[in-house]
Amino acid sequence: MTDTSTDVKLVVLDMAGTTVADDGLVERAFDAAAASLGVAHATPEHARMVEHVRATMGESKISVFRHLFGDEARAQQANLAFEAAYHELVDGGLCRPLPGAAEAIEQLRSAGRKVVLTTGFSRATQDLILKTLGWERIADLTLCPAEAGRGRPYPDLALTALLRTGTDSVRQVAVAGDTGYDMLTGTRAGASVVAGVLTGAHREERLRADGATHVLASIAELPALLG
Q1: pLDDT tens, 105-126?
Q2: Sheet with 141-143, edge to edge strand ranges
Q3: b/e per residue, 64-84, with b = 16+ CB within 10 A?
Q4: Which end of the chain has the smaller Cβ count within 10 Å, N or C?
């Protein structure tokens, strides 16, 4: 691959698992959501759902619930229960930045690159995480699926970031995340750098299979990669 890293003007970063530690919070909040719809823990149905949640980490959460529960009313009920449970975990102090993440974002911006933080969560959940970490001003822009049209694995979040920041070309975009869906977002958006990190949901094999151009131990290595 031609090295275009020094031409990158926009860096689109995932949050949970990439810049923010997950520590199983998504699965714990999902358990609460499933229970609210009568899915008992440690049953075959629950196991099947958890497997799907793990496979689709990074996807818009309402899209995950639409797949799992079928009709829109049940999906919305599950999503509300998920958000309430996740907010409770965050409020309980179980939300922290990954080591080196804030420093990496600062380095990227100091080098003249714009940074956009993206998520599969709702705006309310994203804002709670940002407020809890004191990250309200850490990035040039933050985006959730509802603000982009569709969430991952579609290219909408990366392309909306490009449009909103006035970046000239998709080849000036780098996308980084911890899931295969992050990699698909980057490749489908035409990003020149699609970097997988090993601090979250998916391992190197999945990241590469879904289009990673680079695999890093953590987001702390991204500024050096981009030069």
Answers
A1: 999 999 999 999 999 999 999 9
A2: 141-143, 114-118, 10-14, 173-177, 193-197, 214-216
A3: bbbebbeeeebbebbbebbbe
A4: N
